Amino acid sequence: MENKIVAKNLNLWYGEKQALKNIDLDIKEKSITAFIGPSGCGKSTFLKTLNRMNDYVDNIRIEGDVILDGENIYADGVDTTILRKKVGMVFQQPNPFPMTIYDNVAYGPRIHGIKDRKTLDKIVEESLKDAALYDEVKDRLHTNALGLSGGQQQRLCIARCLAVEPEVILLDEPTSALDPISTLKIEELLMELKAKYTIAIVTHNMQQASRIADYTAFFLIGEMIEYGKTDDLFSRPQDERTENYITGRFG
Amino acid sequence: MANNSGDKELVRSANMRSIYDKKRRVSDTILNGLIHLSTGFALTIVLVILGYIAFRGVPELDFGYFINQTSILKNTVGILPNIINTLYMIVLTLLIAVPIGVGGAIYLNEYADGGRFVDLVSFTTEVLSGIPSIVYGLFGYLFFGIFMGLSYSILTGALTLAIMVLPLISRNTQVALDNVPNSYREAALGIGSTKWYMIRTVLLPSAIPGILTGIILAMGRVVAESAALIFTAGAVAKLPSSFFGHITTSGATLTIQLYFEMAKGNFDIAFVIAVVLMVIVLTLNFLARWISMRFDVNRIK
What we know:
A: 36% helix, 27% strand, B: MetI-like fold
């Protein structure tokens, strides 16, 4: 399996506080990589460095490299618009825009200059189908997206992300605000999407990681403790701290 | 710790009572009464003023007032020039103040790096809104009127009022932008939107009710203002001779005219103007409410 993203010796500080310490991690193409660990361990922070969503945080300092397909995303003169088209993000709280369902999905393509109605119609339909939401909303594409249920809103956010045809999808605890049924739907969806996309997911839920992830990385207080195939990590953890965490002794 | 154990006693004794054993609390009753009394008082004042103005003004209403200017030669009395001047003043003031106020607020909220500079500007804006309007009048007269040579004109008045309503507009815009959830910003930036595209397509539509409320409040200030206008916009009540040229001529708004009529003891016409002003102000207030509901994108229809 090819490496899609390679993080090399990544360090990150919020002001004086170091939040990531010497992270080296490869994300494999067309697979699901999960980041697990207790709150405040740096897993979300790390995820956000992968498409530079940390740029907007005050007093942040990042050292090291993140290589996407051989290109360093922290190099000078990187266009974050194109970076984030390639590396999309889905957040913890479903955050559809206060617009119609259609306009939500069409938002990304419109940024990149697509205006033709027919093209947009097609993108919207395909993205919603890929996000397993189309059948539920096809009769109300032009109603406000805030009227959808939480689980539907999150799948809409995934559709919105898919609409710009990304290569990588980053998900930051995408199911933590959802009920179990919606959670299972999203997990099933991600399993389907990994055929086409590279997926990195932060999760609080170890069962979720073991259910869907091909690779899992365990973070603790800003360090990456262990990384490997999910089965190996859960059945034969190399590090004592990993074992303590996955057996529920802390966290 | 004697006090503490006493409190515990109290809490415990509450358990002894039946839930049907409702205690009458005297302080509650008094406070309740006072609150109702003050509400009633406020409402009465509004009704009395509105009622009195309507009582004195409505019988004097005459269609002639609305289509004529006051002229000794033609023997007509009318407030049409003042109505036109007021409209000019509103439009011109907003044309100057809205782009600066809204633009400034967007810069402060979305672009500036926070810290000292933003604090300083916010503080300045707050001070600006506390200055008595006659002081704006003095400044406007000397700076725009004399120094910039615009003399008494609607433009001088509008420039002066624009400074005056700027805090109102920028403050409301800032609050409106603050209230837009951060998740919208993240979502837009997260799929590759540029900052300005995000502001244009997500932030402003979400903030528009708040921004419009500020603008309409500013309109209310313009309509109601007299002190800042008397030495800037001047006292002439003539119909415009040219559409754009009128901007540079002296023109008294309704409020200024009301002041002159009162000074001359013409209470009949003064009350007519008062009625017109009340109608405009009430309309603007209802408009503000309607707009903030109508354009609220976060409301699910």
